[in-house]
Amino acid sequence: MVQRRAVRARVHKFDATGEISAGPDSLAGEEPLEIQLNGEQFSVTMRTPGNDVELIAGYLLSEAVITSMDDIEEIDFSAGLAPDGSRNYNVAKVRLRPGIWSAEAAPARSVYTSSSCGICGTAAIDAVTKTSAYPLIPASFPVDLDEEFRFPQLLSAARIGELPDRLRTQQEVFDKTGGVHAAALFAVGDDPATEPELLIGREDVGRHNAVDKVIGWAMANQGLPLNRTVLQVSARASFELVQKSAMAGIPMMSAVSAPSALAVDHGKSLGVSVIGFNRRGRFNVYSYPERVA
C-alpha cells in the first residue's frame, strides 16, 4: 500500500447560478499512526502519511520522552497491515534506549490524538506542560512576566517579514488540496540582517504534526538545541506550538495568524519570542521583542 499525501476524488461542484459540474479534486491524506513504546501502546495520532520517523521523534521530544535521536534504538513499521495484507506503515513499534522511559512512570494518558489537537491525548492537566532539556532562560534567572528579560538580537524585522512567503514555497500538498498546515525551520547567522537559511519545510493535516516533523528532521540532521533557528508556521500560534518550540530550544516562533493568550504567557515564561499576524511584511511581537533587530 502506497502512503498518499494527496488523494484524488470525484466531486460535484455547485455555483451561485445553479450550474453543476462534475470532476476530479485532490484531498489531503489523513491516516492514523499508532505509536508503541517498548511494547506498550503510547498514542494514536491522525496525520498526513510521510516523514513518519521525523514525526515520531519530534512528538516524543515534545512529550518529554526523549531528548535526542540517540534515545531511539529502533522504529519498526512492519506491524502495520492493511485489510488486504499489504503494509500501510500505520503502526510504529519504537524501541528506546534502556532507562529512557517506562510505562509505569509515565503520566496517565488517553490514546487518541486528533489532527486538530496535539495535546488531546494527555489525560491529566498537570501533564500538559513539559520541562525542556534545553531551557531558553537560565535557571538562575527569576522569571517575572511583568518585567522584561533582555535577549540578544536574532533576526531583523525585514527578514522576519519574509518568512511566510518562504514557507509558502514549501507547501506543495497545500497547492493541490488546500487542506494542510505547514511549518519551516530557518537557521540564523551572526548578522540579523542576513537572510536565514531555510533548513526544512513540512506539511500535515495537523499543525502540531508539521512542527513535530520539522523538529524531528532537525534532531536527526542538526542536533539539539536549535537555539539559532526561527520556526515559521502557517497556522495560529497555539500553546502547544510554543511548547514544542521550547522543548527543542527554538527561541522564536512566527505565525501568520493570531496567538492565544496562553501561548503568549507560555512564551514569556519559557523564553520564546512569539510572533503573530506575520503577513505582507508586518507582524506583532508578543514576547521578548528585543530579539527583533
Automatic annotation (TrEMBL):
Entry keyword Transferase: yes
Q: What does this protein do?
A: Required for formate dehydrogenase (FDH) activity. Acts as a sulfur carrier protein that transfers sulfur from IscS to the molybdenum cofactor prior to its insertion into FDH.
Alphabetical list of HAMAP family matching this protein = FdhD
Q: Write down the Pfam families for this protein, in alphabetical order.
A: FdhD-NarQ
| InterPro entries, per database record | Cytidine_deaminase-like, FdhD
According to the lineage, what is the superkingdom? Bacteria
GO biological process annotation, one example: Mo-molybdopterin cofactor biosynthetic process
Which residues does UniProt mark as catalytic? C117
Q: Which GO terms describe its molecular function?
A: sulfur carrier activity; sulfurtransferase activity
* Positions contributing to Mo-bis(molybdopterin guanine dinucleotide) binding: F277, N278, R279, R280, G281, R282
List the protein's name: Sulfur carrier protein FdhD
- Its family? Belongs to the FdhD family.
Give yes or no: UniProt keyword Phosphoprotein: no
Alphabetized UniProt keyword annotations: Cytoplasm, Molybdenum cofactor biosynthesis, Transferase
Localized where?
A: Cytoplasm
NCBIfam families from the xrefs?
fdhD_narQ, PRK00724.1-2
Q: Which organism is it from?
A: Brevibacterium aurantiacum
Question: Mostly located where?
Answer: cytoplasm
Q: Name one GO cellular component term.
A: cytoplasm
What would be the name of the gene that encodes this protein? fdhD
